Amino acid sequence: MRLSAYFLPTLKENPAEAQIVSHVLMLRAGLVRQASAGIYSWLPLGHRVLNKISDIVREEQNRSGALEMLMPTIQSAELWEESGRYDGYGKEMLRITDRHERPMLFGPTNEEQITQIVRDNVRSYKDLPLNLYHIQWKFRDEIRPRFGVMRGREFLMKDAYSFDVSVDTARIAYRKMFVAYLRTFERLGLQALPMAADTGPIGGDMSHEFIILAETGESAVYCHRDLIELPAPGDEVSYEDDLTPVIEPYISGYAATDEKHDQAAFEAAVPADKRVEARGIEVGHIFYFATKYSEAMNATVATPDGQNVTLHCGSYGIGVSRLVGAIIEASHDDDGIIWPWSVAPFQVGLINLKIADEGCNTMCEDIYARLTAQGIDVLYDDRDERAGGKFSDMDLIGCPWQAVIGPRGVEAGEVEIKNRATGEKETLPLEAAMDRLVSPPPEKK
Amino acid sequence: MRLSAYFLPTLKENPAEAQIVSHVLMLRAGLVRQASAGIYSWLPLGHRVLNKISDIVREEQNRSGALEMLMPTIQSAELWEESGRYDGYGKEMLRITDRHERPMLFGPTNEEQITQIVRDNVRSYKDLPLNLYHIQWKFRDEIRPRFGVMRGREFLMKDAYSFDVSVDTARIAYRKMFVAYLRTFERLGLQALPMAADTGPIGGDMSHEFIILAETGESAVYCHRDLIELPAPGDEVSYEDDLTPVIEPYISGYAATDEKHDQAAFEAAVPADKRVEARGIEVGHIFYFATKYSEAMNATVATPDGQNVTLHCGSYGIGVSRLVGAIIEASHDDDGIIWPWSVAPFQVGLINLKIADEGCNTMCEDIYARLTAQGIDVLYDDRDERAGGKFSDMDLIGCPWQAVIGPRGVEAGEVEIKNRATGEKETLPLEAAMDRLVSPPPEKK
């Protein structure tokens, strides 16, 4: 993309409305603009990130066997009366009355809607198991929306719902999602730690939050250092196999947020030199809620012996728009954002220091065309602006690599490349630079 | 995708609630289910089609230089008061009051919102031209929603908005969208005819509807046969060039819907043997509305000589969810849907006639793996069902190719392939069949 033809309104100053660094940087780097309290427009740069995150989430959901669909944003209140949640949900539910005076609402979640679909369309145990998900905008009318997209009112969520004939098969579905989440967050460039979460009246052990580490995180996190160093299950993992041993290492050690933390248990379970106390942000939650909605809504299937069995269900959420903010909280410095390669809106920022110079233009066009042809997203700063502004804009928006082309480099056939994360700069012959720019830069030591 | 692990609830009977063929077939083929009046859930099969259409729309918008972003669904009423449309919009606008008693609404369109963004973030003529689009759900509270997704309340629309410093540059933006639309509809497998549309108080000649031909269309259409036979501009078209001569053939002949039709002018302009009278469905609309919103909302930029100029704007819509219905209206037969190759949820339906037969399974798995590796979307019917049900389901959902594998074929090393559109069947050696299945089937003669 040529910056001269792009829409990237960056800001030099920190906006007064933003209290946390991700919100500041999302405004300054031109990712979003507030439409009204807790509601954001995603400008082209932010939209690219949102899409890249969504695509990774989608790929890993599909790989696990979940099926993508799309439920609408506006739901009928009747459904929620059936489940018994309509009155109890409170003011966070955006309630709407349509022109025929029918009570509707903007969905804050979709348990009711998906249970209705499965109830009406699935009759037999033979059609199960089923895990259906969508990536759709939700609305929760927070009393004090804040922290930008981290606690917005209109937000994008991936929510999956599994349907099974028994708790035993539901456990298989749960483990699949557990593994898919580990893989998803790793691909997003994040360290996500599963932490046992409340199950409320459902009981059991099938509720985990996924917390990513960030100094500015909302929760305190306590765990064994080994958990942080565990890599996610690799491509060799098969969702057809029993995933119990795959998950075991992630759930066997001590790991708790401040809500469930027990200092004595922590000290008993983890040697002093292995204790990690950090801050974290919740980005996902998986939860087996048994027959909570299926019973209220009479969602059953016929078993082989002709009986009806009430469906066993779980729900599995990932805060997709929240992740944009969470990734920035986890990965930034004083100059701006540092995108992980997989979600960077552009992997390479190409800076033309002198657009009046034919040699600079030719070399830039060449690099731009060749990288683009190799599937690299390049933001080419071809604006007639001062070098200082170009450098600071590029640092701010956080492409993993920068490539700087000036008249002296052109003469020498060289390119200066900069690793945004480490700040390390190198001047390389053109071809050597091209080889570097197509792969992620080395990480900070 | 293996049908045994998919969610595809087909219906044998025509649902009473559906009045038109696309609605009947979308329900029967398991593409959608109604959530409430005029609001639909997109099941996995329908969601695939919606995505394929969106992707083609997106690619052609991007190619023309338009930039994708994403505005939220919920808007503040204040914005609409600024433009003067809040009171006038009437009951089709879904009005909402949030928990703080602030008046909000579910966006039926986005002129106000995008004008605000451009006003607040674009200061100089140097940042123009700009064409920003999004593909987002809209809501219009139709008094009588009907015809399924063809006239729903919650619907997916691509809406683009162009911003220019003058009517002359706005005309360039308009022509780009005109060409992008011709290309988009052709790629969707549709014949879309541009028809001059009302400009109201704006005046001028920059308003066109794009109408696709379908026997069951809502409007009568009158045009010169040559218009129907004109191919869309090819890949060689450059959006940097003057597009006037590219567009000329599409706007020079007689073409009108019943709203603007003048029989005498039609007969004078078109020789009798070239007159086409048909039915059509509106699927797109492009419209230059000058300074209508920018003036009310004070959206200006500085010109080179330091003056402020009010922005000249156009809007460009494509009904993405409506297109799913419109394509079916244009392409079906008594047995079901006939998808164009480019938007088919699966291009090949692979039918295993005897899943108890190892030879059948081996051949099916082989074909499935090889086609998938070549990027073909295959729906593999591996269910333990009778052949008759498999055939009728596959006809209903309308994959362009069917490949049928039975024990006799396996023995002979042969596959029966069926062209869904023509009904033509051929029995071919495996390798010859494989070669056929990776390309669109020949069209009806």
Automatic annotation (TrEMBL), chains A, B:
It is an enzyme of class 6 (ligase). GO terms for molecular function: ATP binding; proline-tRNA ligase activity. GO terms for cellular component: cytosol. CDD domains: ProRS_anticodon_short, ProRS_core_prok. Residues 33-340 form the Aminoacyl-transfer RNA synthetases class-II family profile domain. Residues 421-445 are annotated as: Disordered. It catalyses: tRNA(Pro) + L-proline + ATP = L-prolyl-tRNA(Pro) + AMP + diphosphate. Its EC number is 6.1.1.15. SUPFAM superfamilies: Class II aaRS ABD-related, Class II aaRS and biotin synthetases. The keyword Signal does not apply. Homodimer. Catalyzes the attachment of proline to tRNA(Pro) in a two-step reaction: proline is first activated by ATP to form Pro-AMP and then transferred to the acceptor end of tRNA(Pro). Belongs to the class-II aminoacyl-tRNA synthetase family. ProS type 2 subfamily. This is Proline--tRNA ligase. The gene is proS.
